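Regression test attached.
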Amino acid sequence: MSSVKAVVVAADIMTAYGNGLDSCWEGLLANRTAVARLARFETGAFHSDYGATIPGLDYHCNTSLAMQMLVQLFDRSKEVFPADARLLLATTKGEIDLLEKSIITGAGDAAESSLDHLLGKVANITGARGGGMVLSAACTSSTAAAARAAAMIRNGTADCVLVVACDSVTEFIYSGFSSLMALDKVPARPFDKHRAGLSVGEAAAFALIMSEERARREERTILGEVAGWGMSDDANHMTGPSRASEGLILAIDKALRSAEAEPQQLGFISAHGTGTVYNDAMEMLAFRSVVGDRKLPVYSIKGGIGHTMGAAGLVEMIVALRALRVNNVPPTVNMVEVDDDAQGWVANRSQDVDRNALALLTSAGFSGVNAALVLA
Amino acid sequence: MISVHGIGWITASGYGTIGSGVCQRLAAGEEMSSLSRRSIFSYPFKNFGRLDAVSRMTTYAVALSLRDAGIEYAPTRKQDIGIIGTSSEGSLASDIAYFRDYVDNGRTLSRGNLFIYTLPSSPLGETAIHFGLVGPLLYVAGEKQSLAAIMDIAADILMAPETYGMLIGQAGEEEALYLVLAPGQESRALCNFAEARSIVASGRDIAGMVDEFSQLKK
């Protein structure tokens, strides 16, 4: 294996807690949810009226929700990205609100919602001129993008990759999840005994990933390392995970092998933890299979910020890197009564973790996709 | 070394494979929907009728490419093979179909069976399920030569190695082309990686790429 390390040198997020990682971190540590009743569109026909939206965004105006989030995120970060950075944009539905507006009002062109168009806009506002791609793999999109960025750096294809992720809460998406009976009537309760579904959330995030050699040459602050990755598919069902967890186990095994790490080196797990009955049970089965009887701190941030779909993995990676740095993981917000299979793993309080431990991050999504990262 | 071990294609005028030289032309007036699914798939495709158009084309081309590569599949068999695909318009047609239907129903009734195809990766998901593909699955777009970019990602995945074989290709509502990539055994391959990459990077349409691959084999 190549000894080139892929390190994160800049990263930030915008979530329903506010703009910036600090607001999200503080919200999670305070065990406070940002999931609230939706006011963005009429929800009377749906199975829930909860979601996690970012205050102040204008719906169906001239600029998409995704672009409003990204502009605010990059304005705040003031990060100047290297012009030679390769750009990987991860999203599921990008600017789908432009298509909604076109169909509802007849104004505009539905094709403006294409992911290619959004890629061009993101390249313009970031100044990343090294070529770009959209990567989409349902709710593993940005986990997969971080994995591919790290792979490009490890194998020498690139030494600087900007990963950008975004997805927003729209009527299109909300009605779809509702039709699939995937929404909890109350804010999502990951790993809770009485969990009944997810809460849709919106977020934007970026991570600048470099070779360690370049990061040191440019005297960059290293926030952490993407040490390993694995991707798989259940090949089982379009909208539900395999209950035997073999797909996620395969992705985790690949990630550990990619990191040349053993399960014993893991200090905590940032779970996908959507709050649906089957996802959370499937994940706990996988964690037990990989880690064995040693109970690790496991948490999900989706009770706090909702399920941010294609952006979820990158947001969770950036939160996990913070957790690694402070040796403490946030509580699983909204979890009141921990499910039997998560006893001793998941807590609704923050938990200390060992110094120098590795973190495991897991993601899963429609089509049976799975992705896992090992972070250091 | 990574080589191409099978190629399957389908267009409005016919379908075929490169390695085994199959080329079935549709008769005048015959539509793709009339194709015998049994002649293309090794076993019946469950719920094929509910697939969207891009998913149908993707699964046809993948079935042909796997057959061309001599890779067998069965309902209970799973294989660590990945799939990366692209399409010219992503899920735009499915997006419009889903949301227009929802609006036409007074914005109160939405259909989950339309919603699931609004992810650009869904055709790849349907393919993974039918053929038992448990390797990495990814939809890629944006580069002018997306198929060449996809080949590069697949090469990274195979060289790591993250999986043992990769299907790469592109699909639209009326056509698709898929290639089976795998490391080693170049002498038994259809062509090497560089040859295939130069063809898919040429910017030609699927029919044009099929012609070039066919010439290469001759």
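Expected vs. actual: identical. Residues 98 and 113 of chain A are 6 Å apart (CA to CA).
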